[in-house]
Design goal:
With 250 residues, this protein is mainly alpha-helical. It contains ten helices and no strands.
């Protein structure tokens, strides 16, 4: 009995030591150490044996987070009928005003040669929404470089170049279009004429929110990765090379 109890104590101590090693590796970002520790603890002979476990864990974590977000969204939406009507009315008025402003620009972003797809599309289902979350969470420096390469391909395309040059010319005619508005025009053009499908591919929403989210992630990674910083600058330089008239109206 004493021997059995001693064995149980030793096993418990080994488990605690393994968990502490795993916790320390995760905190330090030593993912290779974490993977090897898990392999030893689970008696896996190959690191690839971890893949089903990690995939299953990631899927469950995403489901838990998604369920929590959807529950929170449902709680926020339990407003009065008048409140919903008022919000929808204001949103419709805002959309109408934006559409009218675009029409007046006569060739601005998305309103020139008609060669751009504005992105968006039908509302996504739960499976698509969760898959997008998984992609977002797997977005590391290597993924970021691929993302920026894909953006660069879009911005080098003749479609984007044509629309960008058209937008650049409109600012000279529209003296009321100041630098702040011009910058917004560029952001909108990038989204409509190249960025939207790339955003979807990497787990971001194909709208201005997704664009801002991706920019924040890239900026964060660029602070610690020189290759990401270099590629980010390359993309930005390409975009702004089409707009020599930026700031022409003050």
């Amino acid at each position: 009995d004493d021997g059995a109890e001693g064995g149980d104590v030793a096993e418990a101590e080994d488990t605690c030591a393994t968990l502490e090693t795993l916790r320390a590796a995760v905190e330090l970002g030593e993912h290779r150490v974490a993977a090897m520790t898990l392999c030893r603890a689970l008696n896996f002979g190959d690191a690839l044996d971890l893949v089903p476990l990690l995939r299953g864990l990631l899927v469950e974590v995403v489901k838990i987070e998604d369920d929590r977000e959807q529950s929170s969204a449902a709680s926020r939406s339990s407003e009065s009928a008048f409140g919903r009507f008022k919000r929808q009315e204001e949103a419709a008025a805002s959309a109408a005003a934006a559409a009218a402003n675009e029409k007046q620009k006569n060739g601005g972003a998305g309103g020139g040669g008609g060669g751009c797809d504005g992105g968006g599309g039908a509302a996504e289902g739960a499976a698509a929404r969760r898959w997008r979350k998984i992609l977002r969470w797997l977005f590391d420096a290597d993924t970021c470089l691929s993302f920026l390469d894909d953006l660069l391909v879009q911005y080098k395309s003749e479609t984007f170049a044509t629309e960008a040059r058209t937008l650049n010319r409109t600012w000279v005619r529209d003296k009321e279009c100041k630098t702040d508005q011009q910058t917004k025009d560029i952001d909108r053009l990038c989204l409509q004429c190249g960025e939207a499908p790339v955003l979807v591919k990497y787990g971001f929403s194909p709208d201005m929110t997704g664009s801002k989210d991706s920019a924040a992630v890239v900026k964060s990674l660029a602070l610690s990765n020189r290759e990401v910083e270099r590629k980010q600058r390359q993309v930005l330089d390409k975009i702004y090379s089409y707009f020599p008239n930026l700031g022409c109206n003050g």
